[in-house]
Amino acid sequence: MLTFMKQKSSIQLEGYPMTTEISDAVYDDLVKSNRKYLNVDEEKQTITIKRSFFKKNKQVQNVTRFFVELNGEEVVIKTPQKKNNLVSNSNFEDDLIIHNYKNKSIMIILESPHIDEYEQNNEKLTPIGAAQGQTGKKIEKNLSQLIRTLNQFQVIEEQHQYRVIIMNAVHFQTSLHFIHEKAMNNYYRELRDKIWVKMWTEIPQIKNDFINQLESLKKDSILINACPKSLKPFINQEFIPYVSKFHLFESNHPTSTEIWTKSLFKLN
């Protein structure tokens, strides 16, 4: 008697041959979404994310959001003098990241944009800028505490104006929320992680952009890996060549229930 194995559901990026297994429940939701950014092969039970979903015009800009300086007990916080037109709809006075900034930087590294980083438009995926919703609000709310905590680690130079960069390691929506519109339960956290890993490992330009940004920073800049726990190791791996150049930290994601700055942990 012949036994036929059920075909496993999988997903891939257009132009990249690797397929990744996904749950049947997520597969069914994605098929039912009937979005223009997917191709579905029902015979193979494979979904292909069209290249148009991760084109440059879907890329959320990483930003300079603040300038901070520690003067004794006082933390002085400023914003860029002029908002850049490419992030004109940001909820914050953001500017793009310039590569020849003369001072040190504090870079807060997130995994990827989600819902609030795009215009609320069901027909078109239009980027706004990094960390727009609760993530951005919690970074802003706890910024003074972040500087004081970093100072306890003796990595802050007083009376030095640091640029605060908010950076998505992958600047496309790896949660695919625009397509499925589901809440971020365990199934969809797993999907986000799998799409994130696919983009990080299969699209060379994404990791290259990340490394180029690190290379542009001044010595003794501060890097904080605030990605979800499941994705932290990928960023920490890229930190290894910089252990003698930068101050390297991990923290909880800024949207964690506790005050995220309390979770800072120095890696080097």
What does this molecule look like?
It is built from seven helices and eleven strands. The chain has 268 residues and is α/β, with parallel strands linked by helices. The strands form two sheets. A seven-stranded mixed sheet has the order 6-5-8-7-9-10-11. The chain has a four-stranded mixed sheet with strand order 2-1-4-3, covered by helices on one side. The longest helix is centred in the last third of the chain and has 17 residues, at 186-202. The chain is elongated, with a radius of gyration of 20 Å. The relative contact order is 0.16.
Please provide a brief summary of the model.
This protein has 7 helices and 11 strands. The protein is an alpha/beta fold.
The DSSP helix count reads 7
Q: Report Rg.
A: 20 Å
Q: Poorly predicted ranges (pLDDT <50, ≥5 residues)? A: none
Oligomer: single chain
Molecular shape? elongated
Query: In terms of structural class, how would the helical and strand content be classed?
Result: alpha/beta
Number of strands: 11
Beta-strand percentage range: 15-25%
Helix content: 25-40%
Please describe the biggest sheet, giving its number of strands, its sense, and whether it closes into a barrel.
Answer: 7 strands, mixed
Alpha-carbon distance between the termini? 60 Å
Mean pLDDT across residues:
94
Largest sheet, order of strands side by side?
Answer: 6-5-8-7-9-10-11
Order of helices and strands: EEHEEEEEHHEHHHEHEE
Descriptive keywords:
elongated, 11 strands, 26% helix, alpha/beta, 268 residues
